[in-house]
C-alpha cells in the first residue's frame, strides 16, 4: 500500500508555542501551531457553533496576556493565529456557523473576494463584448480594484499574524523571567549546551515567589572598578533560592526566546550556535525596555531589584553608568511602544554580518531582517503619520546603534577581565 503524502504543515518542524494559550505546542492543527487542549477546544467550539459576545474577564485578557485567556479571547487568538474552521469537514451549514463567519471576516477569504468581484461585474452590465475577446474597460478597472484590495488585505493579514506571534513570544519570555526557572552560573558552561533541544518558552513554570516583589536597591559593582583595583570576581556562593543572578540568567532567557523563533529551526547547527552567541545585545535591549515600561530611569528587574550607585562610582565608571541608563533614556525619548520594540529586537537579532554563519543562512537572515524592517516602517507610518514617520523610523534604528555600541564596550571590558585572569572560575559563554 503506498504511503500517504504528507501535507506541507506535517513537513514543518514542530512549533514551540501554541497560538491559543501560549503553552508548549504539540504540532500544527487546523493550519496553525497549537497544543492538544486548544485543538480540542477549537474543534468543539466550531462544531457547536458557539458565538461569544465579548471577553468574560472584562478585557483583562487583552491587557495582561500572561493570564489564561477566557473562551472568547482564546477563540479570538486561535482565529487570528491562523486556525481554519473550514478544515473541519463535518461542520453542518458552515455558511451559518458564527465561527466560520468570524474567520472569513479576519482572513478575507478568497471566495468572498471572487463573489464580490462578480457582483461588481453585474453592476457594470456591458452591452457588447470587444471583437478580440478582451474584457471591457469598465470590467478591467473593477478587476484591478479587487486585485489591489486582495493584495493589500492579504499583506495586512500576514503582518497582523506575524505581530501576534511575536507578541505571544514576548509574553512567554516575560513569564519565563518571572518564573521559578533559575539556571545557575556553572563554570565552563558553553553555548553548545543550548543549541539542541526545544525552547523552554512554552513550559509552565510556577512564579519565583508567591508574594509581591518589593523594591530592592542593588549596589552596582562596575567592571571599571574591577579592572582598576584588580579585584577577583567570584560568584560561586551566590544564593539562588532568594534571588536571581540577572546578568547571567537574562542571557539564558533570551536564548530560549531565540530558540522559539521560526527562523531558528531553519538554520544549520553552526549558524544556530552563532546566533545564540550574539544574545547579549538583545538581552540588554530587553532589560532596558522592561525598565522603561516600569517607569525607571535605570536598570530595573522583575524581582524589584534596581541598580544603584554612589556619586563616586558614577564619576569613576562612566561606561557602566551609560550602559544602565542610556538605552532607557533613548527609548523614552522616541516613545517606543511594544510593537515597535518587538520588531526592533528582531532587526537587532538578525544580523547577517555575524561571523561563522553558513552562506545560505546568511542570505536567509538578511531577507528575514529586511521583512521586519519593512514591517516596522509600515507600522511607524501608520502610528506616527506620513509626515513624521520616516524621521521617526531613522530615530528608532538609532536605538539599535546605541545598543550595539554599548554591548561592544561591555564585551571589551569582559575580555580585559579574562585576559588579566580576574575571574576566579571559568565563566559561562566565555568563548562568545
Describe the protein in words.
This protein folds into 2 domains: about 10-125 and about 135-165, 2-Layer Sandwich (Erythroid Transcription Factor GATA-1, Chain A), CATH 3.30.50.10; about 180-210 and about 215-420, Retinoid X Receptor. It is mainly alpha-helical and about 425 residues long. It has a two-stranded antiparallel ribbon. Mean pLDDT is about 80; it is low at about 110-150. About 55% of the residues lie in helices and about 5% in strands. GO terms for molecular function: DNA-binding transcription factor activity; sequence-specific DNA binding; zinc ion binding.
Shape: globular
Quickly give the CATH architecture of the largest domain. Orthogonal Bundle
| Number of helical elements | 17
Uncertain stretches of 5 or more adjacent residues: 109-151
End-to-end separation: 52 Å
Whole-number mean pLDDT: 78
Summing up helix and strand content along with how strands pair, one would put the structural category as: mainly alpha
Order of helices and strands: HEEHHHHHHHEHHHHHEHHHH
Q: Radius of gyration, rounded?
A: 26 Å
Lateral arrangement of strands in the main beta sheet: 1-2
Q: Considering the protein shown, what is the CATH homologous superfamily of the largest domain? A: Retinoid X Receptor
Portion of residues within helices: 55-70%
The portion of residues forming beta strands comes to: under 5%
Main sheet specs: 2 strands, antiparallel
The total domain count is: 2
Give a count of the beta strands, DSSP E runs of length 2 or more: 4
CATH class of the largest domain: Mainly Alpha
Q: Report the CATH topology name of the largest domain.
A: Retinoid X Receptor
